[in-house]
Amino acid sequence: MRLRSQPAERIDRNHPITFTYAGEEHTGFAGDTIGSALYAAGRRVFSRSFKYHRPRGLLCCSGHCPNCMMTVDGVPNVRVCVEPLRPDVDVRDQNVRGSADRDLLGVVDKIGGPFTPVGFYYRTMIRPRRAWPLYEKVLRNLAGLGRVDEKANGHGPYVTVHRRVDVLVIGGGPAGRAAAEAAEGKVLLVDDRAAYDASYEVLSPATALAIYEGGLVPVAAGNTLHRIRAGRIVVATGALEQPLLFPGNDLVGVMLPDAVRRMVDEWALQPGERAVLVGEAAVDLKLQLARAGVEIVAVSLRPESLSAHGRRGRLASIDLDGERIDCDLLVVSGGLQPAYSLLAQAGARIDYEPRRGIFVPTELPAGVEVVGAAAGDIEQVPAPAVLDGRGDKCFVCICEDVTTKDVKRALREGFDSIELAKRYTTVTMGPCQGKLCQLASTRLLAHETDTDESAIGTTTARPPWRPIELGLLAGPHHEPAKLTPLHQRHEALGAEVIWTGAWRRAFHYGDPAAEVRAVHESLGVIDVSTLGKVIVEGPGAAELLDRLYPNRFSDLKTGRIRYGVLTSDGGRIMDDGTVARLDDELFYVTTTSTGSEGVVEWFEWWNAIWGYDVEIVNVTGALAAMNLAGPLAREALAPLTDAPLDNESFRYLDAKEIAVAGVPCLALRIGFVGELGYELHCPATDAGSLWDALVTAGATPFGLEAQRVLRLEKGHVIVGQDTDSESNLLSARMGWTIKDDKPDYVGKPAVPHLEVREKLVGFTSDVLPPEGAQIVRDGRIAGRVTSSRLSERVGGAIGLAWVDPDCAEEGSVISIRVDGTLRPATVTLAPFYDPEGALLRS
Amino acid sequence: MKDIFRVRRMWRPRAELKDRYDVVIIGGGSHGLATAYYLAKNHGITNVAVLEQSYIGSGASGRNTTIIRSNYRTPEGAEFYKRSVELYERLSGELDFNLMFSQHGHLTLAHTDSSLRVMQERAEVNQILGIDSRVVHPEEIGRLCPQIDLSDKPTWPIMGALYHAPGGIIRHDAVVWGFARGADRAGIELHQNTAVTAIETDAGHVTAVQTNRGRVEADVFISATAGWSTLTTGMAGVRLPITTHILQAFVTEPVKPFLDVIIVSAQMHVYVSQTDRGEFLIGAEIEPYTTYKSIGTFSFLEICSRHVLELFPQLERLKVLRTWTGLCDLSPDYSPILGRTELDNFHLSAGWGTYGFKAAPIVGTTLAELVSTGKTPALIAPFALERFHTDTLVSELAAAAVSH
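^ inputs. structure came back:
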């Protein structure tokens, strides 16, 4: 049923659109919302309420209230009053047993009241305790509105756009348009209604969600999220029509003036047959409604009493100042309230102005202005807090089905501030987030406690302005990963790739045990490009490093390498790596794979205090690195380089710049994996050809897992795995790196106070304990296993563990809990493999 | 049950502030109110005032994401929280107030082998202490939470999880109100809108606090002000190694039951549960900068939403309803600071970071014992402020140790 053509109607009667509601086919027009099309098709009950399952119909037609929430194409909680009608859209009721018209749970409204007062769930279902899960299951199933769309895939067609403007105007009413006209520079106006032509850019339909620090305003426009940075922000969000509190104020047929106006003007709908108009804005609609064929049976600007009565949830009559009037439409206006939420969220103060009965924003954040009705540019007489009348329930909050009785009870129980009353009754916590209930609840509390509204205040406004989809906030999923220059080669070799920190690394290439064997018996190569690589250069470089590390580097000879552990000011182990001196004033420092950024920051932070003439450059990404290791390493490398490799010319812990297969390399002779090895650092762009040359020379690629076994056989620690934020060098048995005769270094003041409450030792065992297994002594926890592996070479399970200091002796027997059983293990202090390091030096 | 038909006050209207009490508790959150409650219940000490600058539960107690668990990494921490969970389990009955503690189980996801190793360690520690905690693999995760994306499509596929069956969620405001009612009914005075403005000390001893409603003396003073701890104790000249940061969270619109267990991903800094009201309650990690300004950030909302969808892509059209921030008082070792200070009658509950709410009942019990007996209970001895002088930190931080 439509009215004859309206002058400003938005429907296009030449373009019918077919859709389904509850499985039945209906037709609307282009320009309809789903809500208007359903109304035209005769639908009056659009949903059932949250708690009492009362029938609810169109109320605000602005997308604020919860009354028209339906499930649309599987998406729950869609406000159909503002959702544009699309062809073949599938619309369904939600939160009903049966249908919106006949909902079995409507029985809650009939009998539930006395048994389910506000907060009833805090006072019931307490005993017996074991019954709570059953009660809870019932409650959980009753709560909630729509259902999650199980078919959604999280990758909807969302787009994020970044914008920068001089002036952003939020709201396209007269005040907003005037502000945009007057503004200079790049001006953008955001409006949630239809687009229009203007001398400035208009983004619509679009909604500003919040104002964040730095002038950041996220704006939702369909499936696009605009992140707008504005130099000046003008808030022109207008005002929100407020409902009135009277018994039966939620009945189907009770509407706000703007809703009625939109129904007639935009969709050519007749909002009722017999109407009563209450409140100034409602009475103003008199002529317009009459033209739409609605019989106006009564009007009242300020009634003394009002109550509405329904028949099967729909408005049938009202009592207005003692007179019973039959009607099917009651247009009510509780006046306007500035839409201040965006401002309050951004930090503005909100003050109550009693003369007009509104909250107005003051003390605006810098760069933010407010104009028009949002600023309080409204003339009205405050509506009464609550209209007396007898009959049905009187709702303060229709989202959460909170009645005036609930609020009064909460007050009597002691929940006497707005915030406590909110949390107890849940008023303002529903889908409208207080748009239609904030003012009403403040007024009611003031009325009931005999104070004024400014003493009551408001609950804190929180972003977003309107509920917003997770998918739109998430935008396209881009999660960065760090890949080494050799990544494609690992993939081509079929490597299993895993995350280590931000890096993607080759875990193994199919058979980690064979990879371990290859390193021990012949030759392996591993991509260690993830190692942090830092150049420290300048006249003060040696002294800087001496002060950063407990170890000493000033006496390190050019071309030599020394191990270094970084400690915090508290003497705790932070990171480790090697330091190679390449020249008098030039050092090449490596760090752990995850530590590089932190270490560079740490270096720079300290040097900002000390002020050495030093350059610190993070070259982690610029250089690749690969470790060629195994008894055949020298033989394999020799044909690829002119540099002499014999043990006198290129000793263990030498660093030399050599060319390998034509690639300029910094070769470090170190032995993390326990065999003769050369760690070759080269420009990232050359990594592929160097790798290929090494593989062609017979090196078996090995991955992280093999490296973990090999380093464990040597008893080498992994910082962050074998140590934690409390480990110190003494307890980790690395006291030998402390050169305490130095005048100063980070952590030195802590060293005399370091206590050894536990020690890091090696152990061997018949069974393999998991990493993380606990050491138990006299029934108490007395240590933990940090690393463990089966080693073919050692012949059994080996590992590292923290133990009581008195157990940290060669041959001590400890008990490790494995699968709930205590298993003996034997403490070993020396490396399990090649304890003398003869192979490294060979 | 009878309380649903008759209206009974939860607590008396605010009384005049007396000049002197036996104990003054600064902070009307879950810790302050629990301490008050147990002072009365366990020790018969009722001449107590709880001073709250705003309304009760207005700080971290009413802003946290309500997760209760005990699967901590250090034996000290795990033992402590185990006792807390045990107290929580009985608390609804004891307070005769339904706190809606729902032990649906708690899954901490591992997306890397190094986090799996940390989970294994936590499980081992927990099992020895009698805490139900174990490492589960993807098949079992799928049984416990059929909705979660276990495929290799997410950026960080799920490799395993630490499963803690007793972990659950609770109605946080109810905890505050239940303790408040219990304390009030024992005769303890609750003073809302009463801000402490100065603390008077004399020779290593607190003599009185000044408030916006007058001066109050007491034998013992307790500070339980979470994010404001350094400011509160600073008034008494007690310096704490604590920084205050904001933590953000949000809820979605309510939907029908979808998720029963609690899902936590440290890798993605996100935790997800669904409340009994049907809202998804989602939180993140603390912001790295220090501030008292409770204004949230949009990047939090964006990143957190993205991470939720990595776990539950079905939620893409679910709508965020409300975001908020809370203050967190972070200690250097991520363990609390609990018990005595250098002032002999000024005790403290602080340094809770993001996990103070879980500890409310055990904090109340132990602080009440400290007040009553004058001795620090063994359970909280490891968390003494003194540890920063003796260098005996309790590293919960390491539970978040990253990979090599």
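The radius of gyration of chain B is 21 Å. The mean pLDDT of chain B is 94.
thumbs up if we can close this ticket
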